[in-house]
Amino acid sequence: MFGCLVAGRLVQAAPQQVAEDKFVFDLPDYENINHVVVFMLGTIPFPEGMGGSVYFCYPDQSGLAVWQLLGFVTNEKPSAIFKISGLKSGKTDVYLLNFCTKIQIEKRTSLKISFLFQFTQKMLDNFYNFASSFAVTQAQMTPNPSEAFIPANVVLKWYENFQRRLTQNPLFWKT
């Protein structure tokens, strides 16, 4: 049903089925992989209203598994290229897991919510990092009556509250 491709390697078209709705491709030497292509073989379509989430698994610095949602494939979008080179920051000398791409079949509406959650999380991280890069101490501030300053702890409090609400209900912003 699925295939996986890494540049310079043979196509893998026989994932290991680890559950009724979960398939895993094990690819050694994940530190040297920049992009992964996941695709449907065209032999078996998803049932109506279903799709497959694609996850990247790598060990964190303590060797525990970290699962990162990359995106999804559906009958309407049967292939995707995922950049993984920036996700492998948890390098350690002891690798308990090889790189693997996990394809999990779930309802398409859930796919959109998962992807929206991931996008919002990245947007929050980006905003907080951007705003924090302008932080100065009171001693470094130059008086300018036409400029307003927001304390960094206010931005941090907003960031933490938004993250908490997003975790509790990814669609809270719609109400």
Automatic annotation (TrEMBL):
Top-level lineage group: Eukaryota
UniProt keywords, alphabetically: Cytoplasm, Nucleus, Protein transport, Transport
One GO cellular component, as annotated: nucleus
Described function: Acts as a specific nuclear import carrier for HSP70 proteins following heat-shock stress: acts by mediating the nucleoporin-dependent translocation of ATP-bound HSP70 proteins into the nucleus. HSP70 proteins import is required to protect cells from heat shock damages. Does not translocate ADP-bound HSP70 proteins into the nucleus.
Family: Belongs to the OPI10 family.
Subunit details: Forms an asymmetric homodimer; required for binding and nuclear import of HSP70 proteins. Interacts with ATP-bound HSP70 proteins.
Name used for this protein in its record: Protein Hikeshi
Annotated organism of origin: Syrrhaptes paradoxus (Pallas's sandgrouse)
High-level lineage: Eukaryota, Metazoa, Chordata, Craniata, Vertebrata
